[in-house]
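seq as requested:
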Amino acid sequence: MTEKIKLITPRLPRGFEDRSPGEIAAVDAMIGKIRQVYERYGFDPVETPLFEYTEALGKFLPDTDRPNAGVFSLQDDDEQWLSLRYDLTAPLARYFAENFEALPKPYRSYRAGYVFRNEKPGPGRFRQFMQFDADTVGAAGPEADAEMCMMMADVMDALGLAGKYVVRVNNRKVLDGVLEAAGVAGEEQKLTVLRAVDKLDKFGIEGVRLLLGAGRKDESGDFTRGAGLSEAQAGVVLDYVGGKPPADNAGIAELAAMQALFDAAGYGPDRIRIDPSVVRGLEYYTGPVFEIELTFKVQNEKGQDVVFGSVGGGGRYDGLVSRFRREPVPATGFSIGVSRLANALKLTGNLGAEEPAGPVVVLVMDRDRTASYQAMVAELRQAGIRAEMFLGSTKNFGKQLAYADKRNSPAVIIEGSQEREQGIVQVKDLVAGKQAAQAITDNAEWKAARPGQFEVKRQELVSAIQQLLGEQG
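struct tokens:
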């Protein structure tokens, strides 16, 4: 009696996703447009590995023996902790510090790739997702920050989102000054206040007031604990959020300098806007912060109209590279969430969602003539045409045709013994065939009409396929 083998259930891990050829092609096209803008601004590509030494990732690491909260970690054979990168910025800081002498200053680079978060997955929250970053390391002035904002705007325009976005800009120095004036002490309380300010668009002034105080209960009854500020303290913060800037603040001067650059370059408030509610959650920002917000409405899971929201952002992080070097190294940059931006483009009709065209398929009508079919495939490939010979086991014509259809093939090539004797091949235009089939309701009529099918001389096969593909576009 043979032992029954237990089959493994095929399961996609939670927080990860598979991508189809159509999705890959659409995102690649989007990334290509972003890359063109980055390179037009003078940025060059650089690639860092998926793994870094865990200590290089810095701010995300917990104080535990096994650094595996927030990041995915392992130990190598030297007992060194390695972690999958959490973002693309910390690896850039390591790369710049390690290659400091060889790199130009300022150093302008862009990077695209997957990052990993060891966090609980949920709707729209993944453990692996793609980012596309651009950074300038070694430039201290607001000019570098302003350039990032203008480049973000140009990226949105290049993707067909003109009029559907705004780049919102603030400065952490302004926020720090407001917190100091309000008497907010302690890092935890500061972060709670900043998170409350960040919810202005979502909850409005009154919602922020509650989060600055004891806390806020939402419609479901869930309670979010507040920052515990007094009414007077909360008033200082709310005055700022409401548009009353603090006097004598270095951040205000930097924002004014950036605004002058936006005006000079022709970027109006419809594209780039100073906004006191922009916080950005990461703790390492030290100056200007900015984010791209898409302003069109979408429906949430409850069927309510909401603004699509942020698809990327960044800011100045002058302290990050200094973790590796004693001297201060200024830096600024931004990151685009590729998957979220692709979803936005899909909603606006600006993301090519069609499956890419498959290969021309040479059907195998006679098994003892495979060398002849392979010769056709080779000729097509040498002419730069995607092509393949059917390699399945079935001899059934209909099933081979169904295979080509599932491959999104533009055409199939048919050569039976009769065609071979006459020195011809049959070409079936699957695109025209589908269009013609929509007007034919009778199966017998469809078979008799053989829509989209024509014959060509064998020696003219390549030129006939080239012409067909050109007509299909």
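The first helix runs from residue 21 to 40.
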